[in-house]
Design a protein that fits this description.
9 helices, 293 residues, 44% helix, 6 strands, globular, alpha/beta, Nucleotidyltransferase, domain 5
């Protein structure tokens, strides 16, 4: 674990060096006791461990790794500094995705992630994010929920190249335009993206949209192509499973947009950093191997 912490720190520190030169995080006042690279390292390692709340990450390092982070102060200071770095996590993830070839890959996949805000029976009593949340239906779980909907794009190796969040009823097709910037080639989606107009619009920017068809639609594509699309589409289900089970992306602990944005950004960055550190493995998405190599 100590070697993993050091490896994550080196990766984050290298990414932040150029970003901080271009966009200094603070123009005045005293510098925090922990460096920005140390804070982001703690968040990423905490996420890898499945520790979701800010308090839990702070307690884990306070009790187990204080010798590596001797300047770790109060939980409030750590949480505030971490939230202030949300934009730097977003930019770090994007740059690391470029290094991993995420944007140069000719094949990408897109899908949605239900993010419940609370149990649907408590929705009428929930006051958090009342303006941003809505009721929606998750086809994969065959159930209704109240909350947000995440929209995810990955390449054929599992590298996340785009992520955004809308209300539960947010349009998949409208959200798509926010997360396909910088990619070209084949984009594989589910039936929710069926639209000749959308397909034509994407073709104008170099994207060939391919989706599964409804039962009453005739498929003119070759069976081999259809089988290939169905087989490779399973990859995004794997990535969504990781984001849900290991990184707890479906849990909403934040109470304001500032902290919520930070939570999403650090989970996406944590997944990308783990993939980067495991990139030479036979299966880079097997993150458990990071502690057994």
């Amino acid at each position: 674990m100590e070697e993993l912490i050091v490896a994550v720190y080196c990766c984050v520190d290298d990414l932040l060096k150029n970003i901080l030169k271009e966009h200094p995080p603070r123009q005045r006042g005293f510098a925090p006791s922990l460096t920005d690279a140390e804070v982001i390292t703690m968040e990423i390692v905490g996420e890898f461990q499945g520790i979701d709340p800010d308090k839990g990450i702070w307690e884990y390092f306070k009790h187990h790794w204080l010798d590596l982070f001797p300047q770790l102060k109060t939980r409030t200071t750590f949480t505030r500094q971490a939230a202030n770095l949300w934009m730097y996590k977003q930019e770090s993830q994007k740059r690391l995705a470029w290094k991993l070839g995420g944007f140069s890959d000719p094949i990408h996949l897109i899908d949605g992630i239900p993010i419940p805000l609370c149990c649907i029976t408590r929705a009428t009593r929930s006051s958090n994010f009342s303006a941003e949340s809505d009721y929606s239906y998750c086809a994969a779980k065959d159930s209704y929920y109240y909350g947000f909907r995440g929209h995810l794009v990955i390449n054929s190796s599992g590298v996340i190249t785009g992520f955004t969040v809308t209300t539960g009823k947010g349009s998949e097709r409208e959200a798509l335009w926010e997360i396909v910037s910088g990619i070209e080639g084949i984009l594989i989606g589910d039936k929710g993206y069926i639209s000749e107009e959308l397909k034509a619009q994407l073709a104008n920017v170099g994207i060939n949209l391919q989706t599964a068809l409804r039962k009453n639609m005739h498929d003119k594509r070759s069976p081999s192509l259809v089988n290939f699309l169905m087989r490779i589409r399973r990859l995004i289900e794997t990535v969504i499973g990781q984001l849900t089970e290991r990184f707890n992306i479906e849990k909403v602990w934040a109470r304001d947009t500032w902290h919520l944005t930070n939570r999403f950004n650090r989970k996406i960055l944590a997944h990308t950093v783990c993939l980067w550190l495991n990139r030479h493995s036979h299966d880079p998405l097997q993150f458990e191997r990071l502690l057994s190599q």
